[in-house]
Protein 1
Amino acid sequence: MASPKVAVVGAGVIGLSTALCITETCPSCSVTVLSDQFSPNTTSDVAAGMLIPHTYPDTPIHRQKQWFRETFTFLFAISNSAEASEAGIHLVSGWQVFKSTPKEELPFWSDIVLGFRAMSEAELLKFPQHQFGQAFTTLKCDCPPYLLWLEKRLKTTGTQMYTRKVADLWELHSEYDIVVNCTGMGAHQLVGDKQLFPVRGQVLKVHAPWVKQFIRDGDGLTYIYPGIHRVTLGGTREKGSWSLSPDPGATRDIFDRCCSLEPSLQGAQDIEVKVGLRPSRQCVRVQREVLSQGGVKLPVVHNYGHGAGGFSVHWGTANEAAHLVGECISALQGSSSRAKL
Amino acid sequence: MRVAVIGAGVIGLSSALCIHEQFHGLLPSLELEVYADRFTPHTTSDGAAGLWQPYLSDHGNLQETLWNKETFDYLLGHMHSPASKEMGLYLISGYNLFTEPAPDPSWKNIVLGFRNLTPKELELFPGYSYGWFNTALMLEGRSYLPWLTNRLTQRGVKFFHKKVESFQEVSGDGVDVVLNCSGIRSGELQPDPELQPGRGQIIKVLAPWVKHFIITHDLKSGIYNSPYIIPGSEFTVLGGIYQHGNWSEENSAKDHKSVWDSCCRLLPALQKAKIVDEWSGLRPARPSVRLERESIRLGNRQAEVIHNYGHGGFGITIHWGCAMAAARIFGNILQEKKQLATPPGPRL
């Protein structure tokens, strides 16, 4: 197999980063990205893109930590380079505050982010309703810039990108040797994964350029994440809701909760409301599968189900998926050489 | 009781406000007038980035450290008020970088979360082997000065756009107290060889992805002669010039290149930042702040002058502590003149 043809379905942060990893681990591959949506209309574009991991109940912690570490290292290098502003990657410091001291005071990722420590008494004075807090510095991926930067890098490798709605993976078997499924919430329909469920998130993107620090409530529901041009205020976690329409009641509630953490937000301008469906799963599905139909085989690599933690682990799962693609290629080459005998 | 304030930078306006707030209630006849040839946005305070941070060492000047602390605590107390945005006041974290270990500063317990940098953080800054991280405050002159002006105007304080040539000029006509907040040009009102310009030059860029201040230190070159990057609410300030004795307010191409090159080396992403402005200013440097009272004989009258100048590159950092001290001196003057109303005692 001289030049395996790989189709990556999905152009959010998972699809684009996976495609890029594949071009790096398998330079002889021809990679094509197919998606019905590209930036700025993907779920990734709604997310703030903060590198603060979500814990997946059924993925071993060491694997989640490895994914996060690889992602952090990758983005750290970009943030420190001349490309940082174009890629939308920047460092941001801030606080995670808890109304009551959490059972786990040291999360698994505390030694990967920078300068992690408990908040001092003086710092906690700013949050009269909160008893405990953690201060650290982490990275943020602003979208659309980050996705556009990934697209730009992909184009330099010769990767083609097409707007196309893939209704069935088998549509692709005649044109492509391997299919990589990075369809996020779309996998529910596309591969019938009933373990995948939406967790609806509504956010406000506001103009408040004096906000330089992030503040996050440990319950994950209320957060203030300053991006390059806008501050993301969140949010909601509505399990099982498929609605992409903004809810005015939620807008008011999010704004009030954020203002109670940071009163100066009362002066925020230009409030934009956005909604995304976190493609949630008990564990991220990074897995090889060979689909079979009427004697024809189609190797598939799945990389979806990142829920609330897509940005935090994207490069790690992209690497893993790219390795699985490598395995698919070896298997194909093995079977094709067998066929020659 | 008429008080003339000379100077409308952060020191003049805040001292005026502090005095009016404390004494107008007790002395309804108190009239304040502010005289200045430069008002916001043309004062030295407007050019400053606005970061609250004293110099590395207070040289044993405990009084200044206390005034710095008073200012920080006062500003921190305003953080939760709805006025903070209008004041140009917000929290900001960042880095102080050194090429060798440095002793902890006098302000380490004033700021929030002061700690040393970890090895991984130092990887961000090749060439620097030691440093601090802390959370401090920004108080942007371009917002704070208009805010102070509004508060003063609401209180009936009058403003006069004129260059004051002498204390005599403002102290005639029933003015009993002159508050001298004339900053770098105090020497024109009364010679002071200890007051010298500490010339700075800054470049303002659009770099909204920068969320931290980064201040480098070269312990041999002295303060502010090493690159610094301070993100404001609209622009990011790049600086690193301190020229003692240089009175020029013209931008220098050589200084521009020095600031630009050194800041881009510190933060490579700045290479893509768009330059929007450039400015030079004169820090009113003095071995210590002059904050004291002087009785001046002017013709056949005596006037009390309260000097409050010489705040170098830390005017915003120290301003409120000094304003309060000036107000205390003013209170003493009022007591001496028996101007403070005391309730009549029983007539026996």
Protein 2
Amino acid sequence: RLARQYTKHEDVIVLDHAYHGHLTSLIDISPYKFRNLEGQKEWVHVAPVPDTYRGLYREDHEDSVTAYANEVKNIIEQAHKRGRKIAAFFVESLPSVGGQIIPPAGYFQKVAEHVRKAGGIFIADEIQVGFGRVGKHFWAFQLQGEDFVPDIVTMGKPIGNGHPIACVATTEEIAEAFASTGVEYFNTFGGNPVSCAIGLAVLDVIEKEHLQAHATEVGNFLMQLLKEQKIKHPIIGDVRGSGLFIGVDLIKDQAQRTPATEAAEHLITRLKEEYILLSTDGPGRNVLKFKPPMCFNMEDAKFVVDTIDKLLTGNIGQNSSCEWSEDQASSEMLLTSS
Amino acid sequence: MEERYSKAETLALRRKHIGPSCKVFFAKDPLKIVRAQGQYMFDDKGEKYLDCINNVAHVGHSHPHVIKAATKQMELLNTNSRFLHDNLVQYAQRLTATLPEKLSVCYFVNSGSEANDLALRLARQYHGHQDVITLENAYHGHVTSLIDISPYKFNQLGKDSKKEFVHVAPSPDIYRGKYREDHPDPASAYAEEVKKIIEEAQKNGRKIAAFIAESMQSCGGQVIPPVGYFQKVAEYVHAAGGLFIADEVQVGFGRVGKHFWAFQLQGEDFVPDIVTMGKPIGNGHPMSCVVTTREIAESFGASGMEYFNTFGGNPVSCAIGLAVLEVIEKEDLQGNATRVGNYLLELLAEQKEKHPLVGDIRGVGLFVGVDLVKDQQKRTPATAEALHLIYKLKEHHILLSADGPHRNILKFKPPMCFTMEDAKHVVETIDALLTEMEEATGMKTENNVSTNAQCKRKTTEGSSQPEGANESIGHMNGAACRQENGLYSKKPSLSSKRIRT
């Protein structure tokens, strides 16, 4: 709403496999959802995910940043040819449902350049990843570089430690354009004193307990352990992440990087039997996603990886079809984004 | 109470960090509220205000039973509904027990807007239809999809803001609408309008997914639809393959007194297909719910696509919801709403006889509207007068708001613990202020008996009447009455001052 009011344009560019929410207007901009429901609207444009492991341009590409950003540039040009105008580029700072993707640094800056030139603005969706999770920064978009500032940031989930709160932060300019219609924006529960007290308490704890530094420390350790596993187990195709936002991409073969969907599903089930709760995501439902509470510690990290090691060693992936049951197949629908 | 910032500082920080589209009440002299209890709010100076606005604090601000339930659960667990938990199922069970049997399936969300958006998704998924019929002056929420069906909002955005899949039916307002109290059958007449809309839409190859209406329009001006309207509309909408969505976000949970849900005022033979609820459900905690039939729920699930709501149905929200239901029951708040509401209506009806500014009094339970007019015949909305009255009431420590498309309708929807004394106090204050205003503009106040005498009259004739009787006025003892009179021993200060907007 803010973007459209500010730019007076309508169209939105999103990434493939994006998920921004369950409201009608957000299903419209969430390929993860609309591909299975209403289909793509004409004012929605889908850009390739800047996934350097599984995407169009991979780790061996000389400049994947420019290549991926040019995809967005092309989309804008195509839209303009059809007389359409871009209101916003809308992206999760670290696509989660898309498979724990870490966009290469510099991508956002280049995209922002193209989008702003077309009169649009950049919306960074930090709902899944904000509040210090990535360790070295408070916000995941900051991983892109100090020279990058989005026009609008949305935040949610962790903000109130489970209490229903969310927030949109933007510039004075955009806020004033929105106010200029004269129409009030009222949200019954938004900004109530209890939610704000909770929000403040969460910020206090993040600071007092040094959760950001902790996320870096434990996250790095976890990544290190997982990378050792990658060397040991061919089923692990990629380990990627920052702080306590980590993905382990499971594959059936190294050459094609075919998602090991059933094996991932099976591993999750076995982990639950070992009292470890983990979930999977990605279009191939094959990426183990770590995003635990920020007090997760070194022992926890070691424990999880040791268990995964044990289970992978014990033939998950090799004989997965033997242990695969109908029940597990039907429960697959449930283990999607959270 | 230790405040971090002075009121001026608070205001300055708000201007800096909160979107300017977010307004404050009484913009010329905002209130900083730091504490509230029951039906009272306290400002930064410790001044106490009677709250006639906050239906959200349904069982009363800071109700100990609700707080206790919330804290207890927060200490135990607050997580998402992908894990099993008793609070969720217990609450769903208790909530659906208040509804007609076929409304048995719940989707828990966190705001009225989310609930109404989901209601639209359910309705559209059902037969794959797109179009929605909404009422004039309706307000269903602030998310994009709901602005589309809220004329109260999209009309402010310009005359071409109505989308082609949205059809606007006349509001069934028998005081100010197309068919009024003198019409032989307004329910049918208004329903006929919906029928016409459906026929027109179908001629253009359009298909109706839903008719959505607030069971009683609030922003639209405390409009109570005539009985039978919903049934007839539902008939037409169902025939066209659409569903009936009753938006109870503002008015549910016993506010109307005689029923738990406002749609039940239409008659026992009326059952909507989808009901949305919000605001009062958690006494201020962000929660909301959509309830529908098994059939509609299964159709929604048939796509195979999961519906997940991060915070919806979490154990803390459900514990709070249960606590609210318990208080409503234990404190007989529905009974109170009927008794106090009826009394309030009686008092206001007297004011209508007395004051030419009062065009209409309407309401049920603790949902009451006072329609202020400049001209009784033409029913010209008295917008400036309403605004002035609101500000004066605030000076007298009474919080009331005005709404309706012309902002001329005083709307009462206080916490459900509102008492007879509160009702009397508000009306006496309004009486005095209206007299003041009418004198200032030269309008004639009928029955210019001094209010002291009037009050005495009540105490002598009003003997104790059983509180259970629906239509009776509750007894007001003389002491309370005389106490309230202290308010207008003051001479009116307006005299020749013109009423300014």
